[in-house]
Amino acid sequence: MPFTTQTIMNTKITTPSYLAIFDLDETLIAADSARLWSHFLVKKGLAPLSLLTHEQAMIAAYAKGTLDMASYMTTTLEPLKGKTPHIIKQLVDDFIHGVITPAIYPQALDRIEWHRKRGDHILIISATGEHLVKPIAAVLGINNVIAINLEQKEGIYTGKTTGILSFKEGKVERLKLWLQQQNHSYKGSYGYSDSINDLPLLNFVNKPFAVNPDPMLAMHAQMQEWTIMDWRHANNILR
Known about the structure:
disordered C terminus, alpha/beta, 9 helices, globular, single chain, 8 strands, eight-stranded mixed β-sheet
């Protein structure tokens, strides 16, 4: 079912606005934050070199739309096991400052600002762990975040996830749950992503945009006559 105002049930209706939904990796930033994080941990001696080999094979599956996200998270969260959120936050802060901030697309900042000036609400939905997505979103000035939740026991990361994984159809499921919790009614929605894996999300929103699209998403976007925004090149809007 596409995004409609009926999507939100039992909420207090305030002045309607639009919801702008952004994917994170390769959409707002010119990188895959989870992959760079793994490299960062290996460089710091906090993860084995073998992690990068396993991840490379999984990234190839992601590009084909065949990734087992549960297995991917199990592999990539292994270095977090037994560590506190405070320790990880310190590492993530260094990681964002040195690696992620330089990778933010200037056009992404412009598009976010365009939505802000319109009075739209902005949300990031990512298939990356919340330990990375939330602080990156904070740098972008975005408070609303849906990401893969990490399990903690007694204040320690277990290396496992919890809840619905915000991946493929899971992004739509998590979005619907988020909408039900909002004290707001939306006129409609914009959606931005680079990946064929986000096709369920782009089909759900009212106004889908293929941003820096992978080949499969680019083909689909052209067939559906969606707007393609390529921030990797100077001529950044194609139709």
